[in-house]
Amino acid sequence: MSAAETATMIAQPARGDEKGAEKEKKEPLPAAETPVVTRHTIRLKGKELAYTATAGKLPVLNDAGETEARIFFVAYTVPTPSPSVKRPLLFIFNGGPGSSSVWLHLGAAGPRIVRMLPDGRMPAPPFRLDDNGTTWLEWADLVFIDPVGTGYSRAAKADLTKKFTTVQGDVDSLGQFIRLYLGRYERWGGPLFLAGESYGAFRSAGLSEYLLEHGIALNGIVLVSSVMNMQTLSFDQGNDLPYPLFLPSYTATAWYHGKLAPPLQADLDTTLAQAESWAATEYTAALVQGDGLPAEKRREIVGKLAEFTGLDAAFIANRNLRIDNRSFVRELLRDRQQMVGYLDSRFAAQDLEPSSHRGFDPTVAVIRPPYTDAFNRYIRAELGYQSDLEYFTLGGGIGHWDWEAKNSYADTSDNLRNSFAKNPSMKLFVAMGLFDLATPHFSSAYTLNHLGLTPALRKNISTRRYRAGHMMYLDSVSREQLNRDVKEFVQRTLAENE
After folding, report:
1. The pTM is what?
2. CA–CA gap between residue 351 and residue 337 (Å, rounded)
3. Which residues does residue 461 pair with via DSSP β-bridges, in sequence order?
4. DSSP-derived 3-state class of residue 72
5. Confidence of residue 363 (pLDDT cuts 50, 70, 90)
6. How far is CA 356 from each of CA 121, 236, 339, rounded to the nearest angstrom?
7. Are strands 47-61 and 112-114 parallel, antiparallel or unpaired?
8. What are phi and psi of 68, to 5 degrees?
9. Fewer CB near the last or first residue (10 Å), C or N of the chain?
10. Which domains are seen in the chain, by residue range?
11. Closest CA to 120 of 487, 436, 443
């Protein structure tokens, strides 16, 4: 979920032995850490795929060996012919900071998926859970991780929580989790990937170098709706960078809602190319001039912004040519008394407080109930895991977040650049949604283009843009495409490294 919006299934009964909570005997562990293991099958492309689900917690230890937190995870593995044959292993998390992994878990990659409407909107309750025909489990083993303060993951003591609600504390704890998982589940020596969404991308970039420094090299990283450089998202006084980077997403949103002039409504790809070119040249040059921009040029810029955003020229002039995303979501459909979503600007809802910046995100409003309900039933009825703790899907377990950036913007793109330099065989795939007003696609592209990599290393990066939002997998067509893209990325990466 969005770092820009930090202030932001129903499981069917167990199907006989397939979904029962048969416990597998393991080496004794403390009761609080003992995982629950269940056996399942799913039918994919006409064939039965047997898999094992493991739900439990791993400890985060300090240097004295004392447990300071326990991180909850759900892992899915497929048996191999022999221990020497190791399937690719993906460690997967969402963002926030403050979001659990439920969204990628039950929305995109896991073997079970929340039933939503085809465009990702919420169906009427009761909510349902289906087998996921596009699960990533078909071609890789999956570990969904809830960072401390999300899901069922908690610090051992309340006063320790602040240790994990920092950029480095978050990276350290998840790096330790990955090392511990590799040891306990005998996954050393196999292909390793990270997959992170939104702040999870920020986290993945930081983790990539942390893991290298602890002797763990990644084959690749999948970033979904990524942010690494927080300056690209921060609408602060004196920081003009986000305005041109958000503009193409405003254009895509206005196009979707039919707010552009007929020539620009004709073809989205053509219109986006025009918006991106203008944003990177004339618009950026105008912002650089600040108060020194000549009046005639200012009027010209106002007119072009009105064309590309569908907003009123007087509103744009009043905002000094600078439209932040909070203003845009309230202003675009003001004539309809609606606001659009940050995470997916295709979604709209009645604006209950049109004169205020406060309000809910229409996207979160349609995804939180079905995912929360479905996970709580799924984890108990199908995976056999019991807990009286509240499962924090999005927020609730984290208060203040320490960005550890003094007089600067938090940025882990340097960590990613260092990882490429130290591990030149590592590959990167970045998925971007055109209707994402939290981590816009043009912002992601900007960061990738400013990593300072050699042409040879730049070839390790591939991208895809989807006609969907921040969580592009909510849209059934985009989810299928995302599965194909990530599968192809993982398999190509492994083939090139043979």
Report:
1. 0.91
2. 6
3. 428
4. strand
5. confident
6. 25, 19, 12
7. unpaired
8. -105, -15
9. C
10. 31-232+368-496 (3.40.50.1820), 242-362 (no CATH)
11. 436
